Write the structure tokens for this entry.
Amino acid sequence: MGLKVIAEGIDSNEQLALLREYGCDIGQGYLFSKALGARSMGSDPIMVALNEQEQHL
């Protein structure tokens, strides 16, 4: 189906390892960064990379 799986609320390395084992594509949570406001989302490196990837598909 070409869908990406995004996990939210990743707070520990153990959670990250389990999600990787299950094949999760993308994750977010306090393990990576504090919560971002709407204004900062446009310049977030991960969001920029995802948008660029989608444009090349």
